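Support request from a user on the community tier.

User writes: "When I paste my structure tokens into the form, the page sometimes reloads and wipes my input. The last time it worked, I copied everything first. Here is what I submitted, just in case something in the input itself triggers the reload:"
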């Protein structure tokens, strides 16, 4: 596991501290990890919804995946 340093606004820092104080996470790092995990989940959901919309719009690709990849 690596460590990164990220400057935060006072508002975000206060939010993290309140989250730890109310017991929603055990440490400040855990708050940030939880937030990043939720963000990653949201991004995955957005990608699926976008793909579904593209299929509805007729932008889907059909055929043998290996053959399609050869063409790319």
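"...and here is what came back when it finally went through:"
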């Amino acid at each position: 596991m690596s460590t990164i340093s990220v400057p935060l606004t006072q508002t975000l820092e206060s939010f993290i501290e309140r989250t730890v104080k109310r017991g929603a996470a055990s440490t400040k790092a855990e708050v940030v990890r939880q937030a990043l995990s939720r963000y990653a989940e949201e991004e995955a959901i957005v990608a699926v919804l976008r793909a579904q919309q593209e299929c509805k719009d007729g932008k889907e690709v059909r055929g043998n995946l290996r053959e399609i990849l050869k063409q790319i």
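Agent notes: The reload is a front-end session timeout and is unrelated to the input. The two ends are 36 Å apart (CA to CA). The chain has a mean pLDDT of 92. Escalated to web team.
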